[in-house]
Amino acid sequence: MKSCLLVAVLGMLVFFLPANAMQTQPSQQKLEVQGDLKLGETQTRTLVPDVIHVWNLALEKGQYFAVEVEHKDIDLVVRIVDSTGIRKGEFDSPTGGIGTEMARGVVGTAGTWKIEILSSEADLPGSYNIKWLTLRKATAQDRQIAEADSLDNLAETYRTQREYAKAETLYTRSLTIREKAFGSEHIEVANSIFNLAQNYYAQRQYANADSLFKRSLSIREKILGPSHPEIVLNLEKLFTIRFDQGKYPEAERFVKRALIIDEKAKGTDHPDVAANFFNLAENYNQQGKYAKAESLYKQSLLVYEKFFDKDHSKVAENLNGLAVLYKRQGKYTEAEPLYERSLAIFEKTLGPNHTNVAIGLNNLAQFYKITGKHIEAEKLFSKDKRKDAKPRSPKHCQQPYRLRTIIQLFGQISRSRTDF
After folding, report:
1. Burial 126-146, CB ≥16 within 10 A → b, else e
2. Which end of the chain is less enclosed by CB atoms within 10 A, N or C?
3. Which fold has domain 5-22+250-410?
4. What is the C-alpha separation between 404 and 17, in angstroms, rounded?
């Protein structure tokens, strides 16, 4: 699911994180054993948040195995755990809620291995098909592909730790292996190129990132077609790069195309479509096209309120966007209750120490200041200072979101935004 929110606080650009961006997968997640996978057999399951599905594989040393997980309405992470309980790999290709994860490896220790399937989305249930595709004695190429997967996992760790040079080296090695194994125009190669592009984007090396995102997109379009849902994330990254640089007409082209594809694949009442409404609204807002922006903010808000509830953090993001819009037009009477409601939702859903709450406090305080409510503004500034005195420990976030004040801790990419 797409969400993040850009605001300007004290003249500096920062970004709201999604509600789950400051935490790893919840420790209270429940493991549900689904049974033994059988070679060639397809199983279908529905996965809900905070649950991990576990499938068993009986494997012998030296075997190569591949398990395909196809998902159509939920963004999944697939993990491999060996017979000793050690996690051997994690697979989360850049396809969003529609795509296929290929979990595979070479067996080092015989016994029962496990495939763990979990949602990367905090709110949404969804279904998936799982099939054990391949089991054979590992070949030299099988071992090379397994090595490339391991390189990607380690590179991702380095990237989240801001070790970008180390990550680049490993991503490049992985890409070289895949190009040799599959050729230059293969989905796996497109995924590797996408990963390398993300590493450049995290460093704000826009030219390198843009070139690689385009190359990844081109491969996907040739293989999947120009309207396939799996190309949407590439389009969103190209939109984000242009939005960041103020190239709003160019950015508009990419987000409109993403919106058309998502609407066709998921319908108009889907949260991913709402996120594209929001992105397009942001783009219009930046250009002073307020009427178009307002309409899209409201469309996005209606979908989120229908899909979730009126006190959801995504609703708060849209309320903030509308508040920004009204504030820029001098419509302070309309803006004030939206800022206040947005902050109240963040405090209720995320807790008092979440970064989004701190940003919301600053936003509302700034608004009170410019509208002459100095006492109210000072109270909020003081409240936020007390929060800042408490230590916050950002942890790895699974999806690439941005928060400029802590970007060096994350080094990742966002999917939507709003500025104050």
Report:
1. bebebbbebbeebeeebeebb
2. N
3. 1.25.40
4. 10
11-29 pLDDT, tens digit each = 323 334 444 433 334 447 8
Pick from 211, 283, 227: nearest CA to 252: 283
Full-model pTM: 0.80
Fold of domain 30-138: Jelly Rolls (2.60.120)
From the list 228, 196, 227, 202, the residue with the least C-alpha distance to 214 is 196
**Beta pairing partners, 117:** 53, 78
Looking at 28-77, list the stretches that DSSP marks H as alpha helix, in order from N- to C-terminal side: none
Which residue's entry shows tokens 């508009």? 252
DSSP category for residue 268: T
Chain centroid to CA 333: 34
What CA–CA distance (Å, rounded) separates 163 from 412? 12
Q: What are the pLDDT digits (tens) for 249-295?
A: 999 999 999 999 999 999 999 999 999 999 999 999 999 999 999 99
Residue appearing with tokens 């070289």: 176
Residues with Cβ < 8 Å from 414, sequence gap 6 or more?
4, 6, 15, 240, 400, 401, 402
Give, in order, the Cα–Cα distances in Å from 80 to each of 96, 254, 374, 389: 20, 35, 56, 40
CATH architecture of 139-224: Alpha Horseshoe (1.25)
Extents of the domains making up the chain = 5-22+250-410, 30-138, 139-224
Residue 29 DSSP one-character state: P
What values do phi and psi take at 300, rounded to 5? -60, -45
